[in-house]
């Protein structure tokens, strides 16, 4: 409560409202009118409401960041899975090609040529 009776701007709990509010905050409690007390109570309520809104906004931002991070991880996993499937498919094609060329009795030079074409 000491901050209410100082005249340093940094110590004021609520800066908006200009000079009138500074006078209210700087006035000792025994010298305040009912109107000033009501204004202080309204300011306290508004301050709590704004604090709540800020906390809610920060929480929403944290949830959005977490959702985006999870989505990025999901995409990375899908890319890795796709890459592995492609590599497996190429290995299967290579094995089938080697088997077919071996069964056909193709010379090693021709086998290397086909494998080079497959590798691109």
Characterization of the model:
This protein is an all-alpha fold. It has 2 domains: 32 residues, no CATH class; 87 residues. The chain has 3 helices and no strands. Helix 2 runs antiparallel to helix 3. The longest helix has 71 residues. The N terminus is likely disordered.
Count of distinct strands: 0
* Cα shape: rod-shaped
User: In percent, how much strand structure appears in the residues?
Assistant: under 5%
**Main β sheet profile:** none
Helix and strand run: HHH
Approximate helicity band: over 70%
State the secondary-structure class. Answer: mainly alpha
Low-confidence spans: 1-15
Radius of gyration: 37 Å
The figure for the number of domains is 2
Number of helices: 3
Any descriptors?
single chain; disordered N terminus; 3 helices; mainly alpha; 2 domains; 120 residues; rod-shaped
Give a brief outline of the structure.
With 120 residues, this protein is mostly helical. It has helices at residues 19-26, 34-104, 108-119. Helix content is 76%, strand content 0%.
Topology, element by element:
Elements: H1 19-26, H2 34-104, H3 108-119
Helix pairs in contact: 2-3
């Amino acid at each position: 409560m000491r901050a209410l009776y100082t005249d340093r701007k940094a110590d004021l709990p609520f800066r908006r409202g200009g000079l009138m509010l500074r006078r209210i905050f700087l006035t000792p409690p025994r010298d305040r009118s009912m109107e000033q007390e009501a204004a202080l109570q309204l300011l306290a309520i508004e301050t709590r409401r704004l604090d709540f809104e800020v906390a809610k906004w920060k929480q929403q931002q944290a949830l959005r960041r977490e959702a985006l991070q999870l989505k990025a991880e999901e995409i990375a996993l899908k890319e890795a899975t796709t890459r592995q499937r492609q590599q497996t498919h190429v290995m299967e094609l290579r094995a089938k090609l080697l088997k077919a060329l071996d069964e056909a009795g193709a010379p090693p030079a021709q086998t290397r040529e086909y494998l080079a074409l497959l590798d691109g």
